[in-house]
Amino acid sequence: MPRTYSKAENRTYVLYTIPTLLLYGLLFIFPLILGVYYSMTDWNGISQAQNFIGLENYRNLFSDKRVVNSLVFSFKYAVSLVLIVNFLAIALGLMMDSKIKFQNTFRSLYFFPAIISLVVVGLVFDQIFYHVFPRFGEFFDIEIFKTNMLGNRDTVFWAVLFVSIWRETAVPTVLILAGLQTVPVEYIEAAVLDGASYVTRLRKIIFPFLVPVLSMNLVLTVKSGIMVFDVIKAMTGGGPGMTTESIGILIYKKGFQEYQFGMASSLSFLLLAIIAVISFVQIYALKKKEVGQL
Amino acid sequence: MRKIPVLLCLFLMLASGLWAAGTAEDSGTVTIEFFQQKREVVDLFDELIADFEAKNPGIKVEQVHVADSGQVLMSRLASNDVPDLLTHWPNNTDYITASLEGYFLDLTDSPVAENAIQNIIESITLENGKNYCVPVSINTQGIFYNKALFEEYGLEIPKTWDEFVALCREIKGMGKLPLIFPDGTAWTLSQQLRMLLALDLDGYSLIRDVKAGKADARDNQDLRAMAEKLLFLRQFGQKNSLGTSYEQATFEFATGKSFMFWQGIWAIPSINKANPDLSYSMFPLPAKAGRETRVEYGVDLGLVIGNKKDAAKVEAAKKFVSYITSTEVAQRYADVDGSPSAIQGVKFNSDISAPLVDMVQQSKSFRNIRYLYAPGGNGRADTGTQQLILDSDVDAFLAELNYIFGKPE
What homologous superfamily is domain A39-293 in, according to CATH? Predict the structure, then answer.
């Protein structure tokens, strides 16, 4: 039975929410509405006046091959990132959870990439791809490493993805490690006594306990995959040409470089819609699993 | 009753914060933000600012230099946050768009600009007859060449396009690298585009015609030949040129990896920094057969004052502009930067760019064509030209040029 509040208490609580509500409205709701408005104008970003053009920008989105290109890139990128990062995080988490030598050293090592500033990551990998990989490729005679992977349309996707994976695996791994601590030791011991193999233990005991963490990891990686901006900005700027233009990069370029602020706003609402649909499906699907298994 | 002391504390904190913000300006020191977009002279400006502040105790100048300054500036203008003072390129459509929208202080016939060479001011005056920029130096672009390597192999400076191609072939035949292209940095590509647009064809009339709906870039054979030339030249560059950035290419040329480097004279401070002992000079890129070889010129460092209500800041910014454009300081700037000055009475002391600067002074030159692009055309030109190098799709590139030139839909 939930506690009931007196009127006076209620009023106090409502009053307490007002500052937050005001701030939320000012910093979130108001810009959102403004964004909707801009997406229906031909505003170039700096002019004092703009014309209302209705849904023109939205109509133009799908006939623009750069937009289609960026959608394809972002999806391809997100799917690869989600699959690889989550697989690696589980593998690394399980490995680091077992009793191996230098366990703590490994844990810090694998977390290291997450704490380096992105600008540094971009600059360092820029040099690695320019100086280190080509030498490696020449030495071992591996064709794809022979030139700068960032400047080659066939390899740039994998180069950027590689850096993202390097950077983004850390946090999910830590979460998996934390999740593994919630698996009751008694269950494992009992299973061992009953002669269950490692794979059976993984499937029947460990994974069911990991479901909440896995779903969290999935949400995190899908989000960072679809909305990817920073790694690409730091490494290729969307180039060469438009090969690595993700939706985020294209919004930025159209808004702040090509004076199509209205168009950029409409593109960001398209991104919002995509994220909303994916999140809805994700939350709905994973909620079912959790209830059934825990 | 316990609420009152808490509220009082909050009020005092708020009030003291506001008071502190209010008095920072009243104490006699005016701080102006100098949004400086030219990366090659950040260190030089730090020195000049220190000198200026010593001479003007009431003024502090804070130099701000960021990566992607163009986009940062655009986003600041979008939220009406114009810097007190900035550098800009008056041939850039971004500058023209912002000037026409009233973000910059009108400097037409202003005494602040009186030291600048009048012809140069005229060349950047907008079509509405107004000028918002004080030019400090001008730039041009051409081919850097490694003098020591040219002497060692007995190579001659080419006078015609055919000689230039023959030279490239000769160097390549020796197993050496004729040119290094910084194609990984997109803006270096739109520079080559704009240079050829004026050198190999009458780009000025063409862009105006496209803008007026009287021409289509896709049908123009000269444009097609120009795009093919950009691609043709890549065979004389390093393998996978898109993997080399401006900084890397500058370093490679400075350390003798390539014989030549197509770049603007703004690269001189960086080349000198990478290798102070390099013996190098420049020659103009020869035009195609049948056209006169000329060089591009444009304002390289232009000072622009934000159009602000705060009179003290505007005055301080004007003072700083007057200081930079004084003959003595402009001379110091020119000597370090290696660029010809836009200020009267400044001597040109750089041997490296002298062959090109002579041509500018003899009027064998054309104005940087990009002032004619559509708003936002600069950014599209960067990406579009890089895409051309990437996929060699000339047709798609010509369609993109329609957009860059502002063809009505």
Answer: MetI-like (1.10.3720.10)
Q: Pick the residue from chain A with its C-alpha nearest to B75.
A: A256
Of the two residues A143 and B151, the one the predictor is more confident about is B151
Is B21 within the bounds of a domain?
no
Q: How far apart are CA B293 and CA B291, in angstroms?
A: 6
Q: Give the orientation angle of helix B203-211 with respect to helix B394-405, to 10 degrees.
A: 70
Q: Mark yes or no for CB contact A148/B184 under 8 Å.
A: yes
Report the alpha-carbon distance of residue B355 to residue B201 in Å, rounded.
Answer: 23
Of the candidates A197, A205, A199, which has an alpha carbon nearest to the alpha carbon of residue A293? A205
Q: Note whether B123 and B188 are same-domain residues.
A: no
Is any Cβ of chain A less than 8 angstroms from the Cβ of B255? no
For B100, the closest chain A residue by CA position comes to A47
Q: Does B101 touch chain A (CB under 8 A)?
A: yes
Partner-chain residue, chosen from A152, A240, A258, that has the shortest CB–CB distance to B376 = A258
Encoded amino acid at B285, one letter: L
Question: What integer pLDDT is reported at residue B8 of this predicted model?
Answer: 55
Nearest CB to A257: which of B103, B244, B376? B376
Residues A240, B183: C-beta atoms closer than 8 Å:
yes
pLDDT for A2 equals 66
The answer, yes or no, to whether residue B6 has pLDDT greater than 70, is no
Residues B242 and B378 in one domain: yes
> What pLDDT, on the 0 to 100 scale, is given for residue B143?
96
Print burial letters for B80-112: b (CB count within 10 Å at least 16), e (below 16).
Answer: eebbbbbbbbbbbbbbbbbbbbebbbebeeeeb
Span A237-250, pLDDT tens digits? 887 888 999 999 99
Interface touch A252/B389, C-beta < 8 Å: no
Give yes or no for residue A267 having a pLDDT over 50. Answer: yes
Average pLDDT score, chain A: 87
* CB of B135 closer than 8 Å to CB of B342: yes
Candidates A12, A257, A261, A268, partner chain B, best to mutate (most B CBs within 10 A) = A257
Residue A205 DSSP one-character state: I
Listed as own residue / partner, the contacts of B347-352 with beta carbons closer than 8 Å and 24 or more positions apart are: B350/B268, B351/B281, B352/B144, B352/B265, B352/B268, B352/B280, B352/B281, B352/B282
Domain containing B383 equals 141-297+367-405
Q: For residues B144 and B254, what is the distance between their CA atoms, to the nearest angstrom?
A: 10
Which of B375, B379, B386 shows the shortest C-beta gap to A240? B386
Is the ipTM value over 0.85, yes or no? no
What span, in angstroms and rounded, lies between the C-alpha atoms of B249 and B186?
13
- pLDDT for B159 equals 93
Residue B120 neighbours by CB under 8 Å, 6+ apart? B135, B138, B299, B342
Q: 3-class SS at B201?
A: coil
Do residues B250 and B304 share a domain? no
User: B71 and A149 in contact by Cβ < 8 A?
Assistant: no
Q: Which residue has the higher pLDDT, B13 or A38?
A: A38
CB B190 within 8 A of CB B397: no
Do B282 and B236 fall within a single domain? yes
Taking the C-alpha atoms of residue B115 and residue B322, their distance in angstroms, rounded to an integer, is 8
Measure the CA–CA gap between A248 and A268, rounded to whole angstroms: 8
Amino acid identity, position B375: P
Tokens representing B201 are 């064809």
CA B95/CA A61 separation, integer angstroms: 27
What residue of B is the nearest CA neighbor of A128?
Answer: B243
Residue B12 placed within a domain: no
In tens, the pLDDT along B243-280 reads: 899 999 999 999 999 999 999 999 998 999 999 999 99
